[in-house]
Amino acid sequence: MESPQQSCVKPDVSLEIMKAGSVLRKAKSRMWRGHRHYKLQDDCKTIAYKSSWAMNSYSTFSVGDVEAVREGHESDVFLSVADEYPPERCFTLVFRGRRGNLDLVAESAEEAQAWIRGMQTLIENLQSMGESEKLDQWISDLFLKADRNKDGRISFKEVRRLLKLMNMDMNEDHASSLFRMADKSQTGFLGSEEFVHFYKMLTQRKEVVELFQEYSSDGQTLSHCDLEEFLREEQLEGDRSQEHALELIQRYEPSDTAKANHTMSIDGFLMYLTSADGSIFNSEDQRLYQDMTQPLKHYFISSSHNTYLLEDQLKGRSSVEGYIQALKRGCRCLEIDCWDGSSGEPVVYHGHTFTSKILFKDVINTVAKYAFKTSEYPVILSIENRCSVEQQKVMAQLLKDILGDMLLRTTIDGKVPSVLPSPEELKGKILVKGKKIGGLESLDADNPVSGEVSDEDDSSELRRDSLTTESLPSDSKKSKQSLTKELSDLVIYCKNEHFNNFEHARIHGKPYDISSFSESKARKIIKEAAADFAQHNARQITRVYPSGLRTDSSNFCPQDMWNVGCQMVALNFQTAGLEMDLNDGLFSQNNRCGYVLKPEILRNSEQQFNPDKPQDRKDYCPLILTIQVISGQQLPKVNNKVGSIVDPFVRVEIYGLPADQATQETSYIENNGLNPCWNETLEFAVHTPELALIRFVVEDYDMATKNDFIGQYTVPFSCIQSGYRHIHLLSKDGTSLRPSSLFVNINITEAS
């Protein structure tokens, strides 16, 4: 392991400038300007900063918390004060999760470039680290935390304090024994290398050692044949086991001698088990593995509701950042609520509320820049249009001018479609979803038509049903407005169409018609006619959006809607929690491209599928999922109080058809977040596996109050790998908690 005192990055001019420190202006608004001193710490992993009026009190943040650096006016703040600061002096640090951005202004363009290049170097260095390097880095961080007086060594007293930080309450005699064994120099202190030895003894994985020895012929290594047998018997890899065993030895075995002998040591075995190859998520399903040539109606499409909002629906901030973050997460259907703005400029905000406003042109510029950075498959702009005729024309022109060739303006082959095109055919295209004058059959319509030009009306639902919104601003315009030809002509394959009933839609519906339902209306239909709803969604696209009463930007459970094949289930992406975990889980497959092919049972419009009676399927084949929850590793603390250590337990939740919904949990382990061992087995019957999601949740047990969330991981049932697997936990925001993980053994069999 590299010495903890050494820098983790090669010498670099930009980094030296950052280490020397800079006075940077933190930009928050036109009215607020604050100077702060920022500098990179010698560890090259921490940025320290303090206000100009502060004495020597520095605050810090980790370089690892920064996801990206943007140059110039690439944020709401800089867009709002663009005339005050030259773009060459401006840059934005974008943090992971839902933490706000940091907008900074340097004294010169050269200084800004030094920070931009330096941060990019540090971020790239972290991203290029292998699993072994990340673990070394983590151990190095632990040593630096423990070495409070910075003398390059730690005492037993410092080790005891470190154990509390590491979430473990260890018997003092045992800890002292390990300390003495690691203290090779017999000085009563541990140097950096001795600390690595201490750490390895402390975190020795007995359960992995036992598994290793069970398959090892000599008790010391796994021969090629030993590893092949493990892959065949436990990991159920079948005929590919022999070839894969050799690949794994070359990939994960740290010893060159062992590699040459085609053997694997315990270190290599552990490295394999904690790698992507040993993950519960089948890496083959993380690539683009699905057929992308089916009509759009046959896909679940990652969709966002009121994408512009970063907070609540009443007073929250509107921001282009909402669009950037949604697109980075693979979202393919964005919502834009458009209203008349001053000076003839359309604005985007949640109408009839106190949410802030942003310019429509800024939203479209943002979409143009970020639409295809994460996925090359089509982006759909769901336009909620409340603008006057004059500003609708402005909207249409902005869409054409800014998006250019990316904007789909005609059908692919110039003909009226009998079926929707596929994501593959629409690669790199941006589609407008909205009301349309006539249909694609009447593209020569000239005159504006009056009618309801918006597809959803959250605010009217909120006004009708909520007693807490009496003071909301009203809008003098009537809900029925004229739709201009200019905007109508941009709606090609995604025409908003009012839903009457299933029979009417079956007889009169066009393949490009899209109906929108509030969650309450969708639930009512599911309760009364789930099979008909599923059949309807095999023919046309349906969008479901949250109730207007969810003023806190909370979400509904999307699984209920996916069960009947609803393609666009729009969620408030800004709100973390179970619902977004499920959404991220479903769309984590297929290269996170934002499109997931629906199961065959939901694509066949001729064969009726009843979600309430899965056993009526011709190919009904329920499965038994058995999960042995073995252990946990390096779980994070949830309480920063000194001496506070978690009492973790694991809950496994199944989401899918009503018959598959289930929850089971382990017992809790007292005072051990470092290496808790459960060795408990949970069993589930899964009737429709192709629609099921499995969510693993770790919580801190509390007898008196609500349990605290520690981490979670959600995976589609169809993407699970059998055998001994690690589950790498995610935070509430969906960001990685590495090296926190669970170790499980998965077995899937047919129900008898």
Written description of the protein model:
Residues 487-603 form the PI-PLC Y-box domain. It is a peripheral membrane protein. The protein is α+β, with helices and mostly antiparallel strands and 752 residues long. The protein has 5 domains: 13-128, Pleckstrin-homology domain (PH domain)/Phosphotyrosine-binding domain (PTB) (PH-domain like); 131-203, Recoverin, domain 1, CATH 1.10.238.10; 206-278, EF-hand (Recoverin, domain 1); 296-456 and 479-602, Alpha-Beta Barrel (TIM Barrel), CATH 3.20.20.190; 615-750, C2 domain (Immunoglobulin-like, Sandwich). The chain is built from 21 helices and 32 strands. The strands form 7 sheets. It has an 11-stranded mixed β-sheet. Strands 4-3-2-1-7-6-5 form a 7-stranded antiparallel β-sheet. The protein is globular, with a radius of gyration of 28 Å. Mean pLDDT is 89; it is low at 1-7, 462-470 and 475-479.
